[in-house]
């Protein structure tokens, strides 16, 4: 194993043993530990493998859907560019993933509601509306009568 992966594994072990979880909400931008990844997956930078991320969705106190952020602006259908104070930032939608809240370090800012709503709209128009996707008019998990559907035992 290379020295870089060894260093990341050591840090990851410390993160796993972390007891206190940070309080976080949707739309917040945090420094986080994405870690050392493989191939084209977005890495954290520097000796601690850190990078800013946008909390796109909080599932619970332990898990969140994170979108990595970058200062490098590239034109790509799955990179969303926005103005952050006095400079442009890019959200790498193509790299979003579920992470543990143990990876969060420090809150940096909160994305304004109007920018977040614009991001959600653009994601709906690009990612969630996949070309040639089958149209299911009756999704299996659709709520009926305000109650969750009953589980089927096999």
A few lines on this structure:
With 154 residues, the protein is an alpha+beta fold. The chain is 18% helix and 29% strand. Strands 1, 2, 3, 4, 5, 6 and 7 form a seven-stranded antiparallel beta sheet that branches.
Main beta sheet, described?
Answer: 7 strands, antiparallel
CATH topology: SH3 type barrels
Extract low-pLDDT stretches: none
**CA distance, first residue to last residue:** 44 Å
Task: Tell me what the CATH architecture is.
Answer: Roll
- In oligomeric terms, what are we looking at? single chain
Radius of gyration (CA) equals 18 Å
SSE-based structural type: alpha+beta
Q: List the total number of helices.
A: 2
Q: Could you report the average pLDDT, rounded to the nearest whole number?
A: 75
Instruction: Return the CATH class.
Output: Mainly Beta
